[in-house]
Design a protein that fits this description.
By secondary structure, the chain is mainly alpha-helical. It folds into 2 domains: 61 residues, Helicase, Ruva Protein, domain 3, CATH 1.10.8.50; 61 residues, Irregular (30s ribosomal protein s13, domain 2). Strands 1-2 form a two-stranded antiparallel sheet. α4 packs across α5. The longest helix is centred in the middle third of the chain and has 18 residues.
């Protein structure tokens, strides 16, 4: 199995898709990296030559990916919380921080809740019993 920057990449998929398994690399960046490395995006990961893997590794070392990227994001959020900014407070309260409405929706951020509201009489009787 091909391993780059600490991530096992699927060998059966094309290399441009395989690179997206690395946190911080999407399809667009994957294609840019392959152009810089001079590797065909149509090659399967298992078909890469050792020199191709080495050139990909060298280029990937210039990007902030995986653990370093996760650490930077976590530190940025901690800084926002520490300075008491509006965005930091929203992160602390577990609410959306980019202006979305929360009267309805925001379920992903706020978590699963039980439905509260009007019930039919027969349903209310079943719950009470």
């Amino acid at each position: 199995m091909l391993r780059l920057v600490g991530v096992d990449l699927p060998e059966q998929k094309r290399i441009e898709i395989s690179l997206t398994y690395i946190h911080g690399i999407g399809l667009k960046l994957s294609r840019e990296i392959l152009v810089k490395a001079g590797v065909s995006p149509d090659l399967r990961a298992k078909d890469l030559a050792a020199k191709d893997v080495a050139s990909l590794q060298k280029i990937l070392d210039t990007y902030k990916v995986e653990g370093d990227l996760r650490k930077e994001i976590r530190e940025n959020v901690q800084r926002l919380k520490r300075i008491g900014s509006y965005r930091g407070m929203r992160h602390t309260m577990g609410l959306p921080s980019r202006g979305q409405r929360t009267r309805t929706n925001a379920r992903t951020k706020r978590g699963k809740r039980k439905t509260i509201g009007a019930m039919k009489k027969e349903d209310a009787a079943k719950v009470a019993a």
